[in-house]
Amino acid sequence: YTEAWDADKKSIHVMPDTPEILLAKANSANVSNKLYVQAWEEAKKKGYDMRADAIPIKTAKASRDIASDYKYKETHEKEKGHYIGCPSAKEDPKLAWAARAMALQNDRLYKKAYNDSKTQIHIPVDALSVQAAKECQTLVSDVDYRQYLHQWTCLPDQNDVIHARQAYDLQSDNVYKSDLEWLRGIGWLTEGSVDVVKAKKAQELLNDRLYRTRPEQLKFTSITDSPDVVLAKTNAMQLSDV
Fold it and tell me: Which Pfam family, giving just one, matches this sequence (predicted)?
């Protein structure tokens, strides 16, 4: 079936001057990395001549001197101690302004007047605010709020003591739950409970195995001489590469 096509493929010949071939060659030259850097590679082979007085060298040196920290601070170091116009550092406006800003920022100096004035306040003992504070202290004081009663001595067989013990036992959580202590640590099998039965029923409803019948479980035998089977075999033979 494919013999004629295979023979055709070997006899096709494309002329080298066709527009498609010329376009492919032009595209190859455009995207070629070797041709793209060819001029740069040839320029590198010629070498270079860089003199010490060249403009790029001078520009680099000037940039280095500008960026140098020593050159940047050289003028400032030379001018140290040569201030003119102020006989002392206190009379210099800039230094005075810096000292004033430092004093304002100093927390100790900022709070010095307040700390000195704290010990000079005198409040009368009968002032309304003092009396109100004392009354509030008395109201919120735990010592004055609680007044413990004296210890009573009662006989253990008195009716009120026995009644109080019975009431305490009824209200006690330990006594209330004492009948359940024997159940602690005993496992409980939930088989047969409502939730378990409901879960099983839901699982049966959602079970794909019970809902659908597998194709392999169906008893089916294909007829070998039916028209569609014969047609499929014929097509398979025609499409077979062998």
Answer: Nebulin
